[in-house]
Write a structure and sequence with these properties.
This protein is of the alpha/beta class. 29% of the residues lie in helices and 19% in strands. The protein folds into two domains: 2-173, Rossmann fold, CATH 3.40.50; 185-241, Alpha-Beta Plaits (2-Layer Sandwich).
């Protein structure tokens, strides 16, 4: 079976899961690819599709949603597995993602979410160790989910029936987080004394929200920034952060992009 594992990863958690999936499906022809690299949006050569996203502000990442919006409607149905990585609650992330894919004839028949290092929580509450860890036995869970998905794919006959992930009460509980993130954007500060002017943050920003300033220091365009915090976690000098007067003592180094 030919399987495409397509993902967007802010800091590295979602990428790590995608790589675990690729390893668990070694008996099949598998391609693991970031949407930041994947130009082709015609999936007819694949028997199955897996799509992954981090939970950003209780929903799928904007970059992935923009990518999906540009996908043409596929002429045949393709069975799809959607997953997300979350710090605490994923809310309707999978449901929203499945609905967007359904409109492109990419039919979700399986879903999962995985507790993973949190890009925001690890910065705001660094004393909470949970925000730096993947859930227990994550590789076994990922492998089992992939196996169940492919068994479902093999058993399908005729038109696929979409299984939209159910609505979750956590979405109601996290409503303030959702609406707050739409109107309040945390400022990312630069510590000039630590900055190496290496331009890594500029190259790594998926939203092209960072430019070179007049003195060679990075300048963040707040209107383009989605607070994915990749720039903070991937700065080797820890020159970027949420606190104006002090550097973060801990950042995530899961899988540098």
């Amino acid at each position: 079976m030919k399987v495409l594992i397509l993902y967007f990863s802010g800091v590295g958690s979602t990428k790590k899961i995608a790589e675990m999936m690729g390893s668990s499906l070694f008996e099949h022809e598998v391609e693991v690819c970031s949407v930041e690299e994947k130009g082709v949006k015609d999936f007819l050569s694949y028997d199955a599709l897996i799509v992954g996203t981090p939970t950003h502000h209780v929903g799928p990442a904007k970059f992935l949603l923009d990518y999906i919006a540009d996908i043409p409607v596929q002429v045949v149905q393709i069975p799809t597995f959607v997953y997300n990585t979350k710090g605490l609650a994923s809310c309707h992330t999978n449901r929203i993602l499945a609905q967007k894919l359904l409109a492109k004839n990419l039919i979700t028949i399986y879903e999962a979410d995985y507790i993973a290092p949190a890009s925001d929580g690890s910065l705001i509450i660094p004393s909470f160790k949970r925000f730096f860890l993947f859930e227990k036995d994550i590789e076994a869970k990922v492998a089992n989910d992939c196996r169940q998905f492919l068994e479902l794919v093999a058993s399908q006959t005729g038109n696929l029936v979409a299984k939209l992930p159910p609505k979750r009460i956590s979405s109601v509980i996290n409503a303030p987080n959702k609406f707050g993130s739409q109107f309040v954007k945390l400022t990312i500060h630069l510590h000039e004394d630590a900055c190496k002017k290496c331009d890594l943050c500029i190259k790594n920003c998926p939203y092209k929200a960072i430019n070179n300033g007049k003195k060679g220091y990075p300048v963040i365009k707040k209107e383009k920034c989605t607070n994915c915090y990749r720039c903070i976690h991937h700065c080797k000098a820890r020159a970027l952060g949420l606190w104006k007067k002090k550097k973060h003592l801990k950042v995530l180094q899961i899988n540098r992009i």
